Amino acid sequence: MFTGLVDDVGLIEHVADTPAGRELRIVSRYTDLADGESIAVNGACLTVREHGISASGRGWFTVAAIVTTLGRTTIGDWETGGTVNLERAMKLGDRLGGHLVLGHVDGLGRVLDTRDEGDAWLIDLELPASMRPLLVDKGSIAVNGVSLTVNELLPTGVQLSIIEYTKQHTTLGLLAAGANVHVEADVLAKHIERLLMPYLRATDAPTLAAALTELK
């Protein structure tokens, strides 16, 4: 489990396609990783296969993405020299500064527009239709592993407001219109939707909100 508070931006040093999927070697500041531990790479929970320390003193580790993961993420498009947001799994007793993030990518969002507005950088993000009911104004969403607050609900997605610190300390500052990003909805919203789905199916209402109104 993660918090969505990115604490390093890693450099993809090597990419290799394998019969089972794809393997990546990533350079980071982490020098005390353990083989088998979980790490969020652009919000996708992956397993450390090998790790070590380079001659320069920087840490490195390898992860692998199986075919199923490649089909649900952007990892198949990653290239040597690219950068990725990194977060190690949280420990019990850690401060939960973001929100509960599982590292399970729900879908891909597409950046529609980015622009400066005052001291904020706004991102308009188009989301899969299945994800939109899970989001609320000022609720939580993870984008490429970064815990963010929904600034505004849009007809086809959400608007995000990025502060300068987040822009400088994650890869979000590199996003441009047309880019695809990993998106994970709030896990609490997903569980609520699952629990209420039988009631939605029992009505002819087009949305969950309409179904709840009909069942009152």
Element layout with pairings:
Layout: E1 8-18, E2 21-28, E3 38-41, E4 44-47, E5 50-53, E6 59-66, H1 67-72, E7 83-88, E8 107-117, E9 120-126, E10 140-143, E11 146-154, E12 157-162, H2 164-169, E13 180-185, H3 187-201, H4 208-215
Antiparallel strand pairs: 1-2, 1-7, 2-6, 3-4, 3-7, 5-6, 8-9, 8-13, 9-12, 10-11, 10-13, 11-12
Helix pairs in contact: 3-4
Q: How would you describe the overall organization of this protein?
A:
There is one protein chain. The mean pLDDT is 92. The protein has four helices and 13 strands. Helices cover 16% and strands 41% of the residues. With 216 residues, it is an alpha+beta fold. A hairpin with a 5-residue loop joins strand 5 and strand 6. Strands 4-3-7-1-2-6-5 form a seven-stranded antiparallel β-sheet. Strands 8-9-12-11-10-13 form a six-stranded antiparallel β-barrel. The protein is globular. The protein has two domains: 8-88, Elongation Factor Tu (Ef-tu), domain 3; 107-191, Elongation Factor Tu (Ef-tu), domain 3. The two termini are 36 Å apart. It catalyses: 2 6,7-dimethyl-8-(1-D-ribityl)lumazine + H(+) = 5-amino-6-(D-ribitylamino)uracil + riboflavin. One of its GO terms (biological process) is riboflavin biosynthetic process. Pathway: Cofactor biosynthesis; riboflavin biosynthesis; riboflavin from 2-hydroxy-3-oxobutyl phosphate and 5-amino-6-(D-ribitylamino)uracil: step 2/2. Lumazine-binding repeats lie at residues 1-99, 100-196.
